[in-house]
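User: Thanks for the earlier help. One more: NAD(P)-dependent oxidoreductase. Can you show the sequence and predicted structure together?

Assistant: Of course, both are below.
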Amino acid sequence: MSDEQTLPPQHQDQQPGQETEMRPQPLTIGEYYQAAGKLDGMTAIVTGADSGIGRAVAVHYAREGANVAVLYLNEVEDAERTRLEVQAAGGEALLFAGDAADGEFCRRVIEAVIEKWGRVDVLVNNAGEQHPQQRLEDISEEQWEQTFRTNIFAMFQLTKAVLPHLRPGASIINTSSVTAYKGNPTLLDYSSTKGAITSFTRSLALNLAKRAIRVNAVAPGPIWTPLIPSTFDAEKVSHFGAETPLGHPGQPADVAPAYVYLASADSAYVSGQVLHVNGGIVVNG
């Protein structure tokens, strides 16, 4: 590869993408990560957990002592791999395939999790999709609505379903994006949803403060997940992350520890905040 090329050129024709088809495979957990039982006995729900950041969060949580409900759309092979990795890390996993923007699906998930483990301590709203277009006029109403449905409506539905079961000390963590802060000329609808997620996070944190439920977000920069080859053409993928100060894309393993921090007692005095894991991009947000 050239100095500016960060990845082998590749493309997948369908979203959600498949992690099993990616080369190189994303790194789920870092070689030097040291678990410390920060989530012992907890139960977490993670959306978009079949691959990418969601899988890495699920595996890190299992390493820290949590059981994990893995929500995904239809990526069965990837989701089964997440189950195996969670189990290998010492946790139990429940898999749920469906649309998190469907309120009835969310209610069924919560009922099953409560029946299995009797509690929910952490909700990670992570599922997302993006579809680049060169001009605003090229974005159809259907695309605009679908992106909002997946990226922010699902957060509303699942959070609403789980709230009656969250106790003081529980944590909600939403996945925002660097695009919410610096924009993106070809991801207008996606960036808009990420801005909404940041505002939702801050407002919900204020709303739930008296119930001692913390709400925070993580805003990743360019991270090597199935969303990338299923979104961009092979040429753009080959230079993915090169524009960051660190000069390369991050791995899911680089992001997941931020979710561990926000789920654990280490962040007991942190709410309404956004952690930026983006390769050195300064956004002052």
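User: Great, one quick takeaway?

Assistant: The chain has a mean pLDDT of 95.
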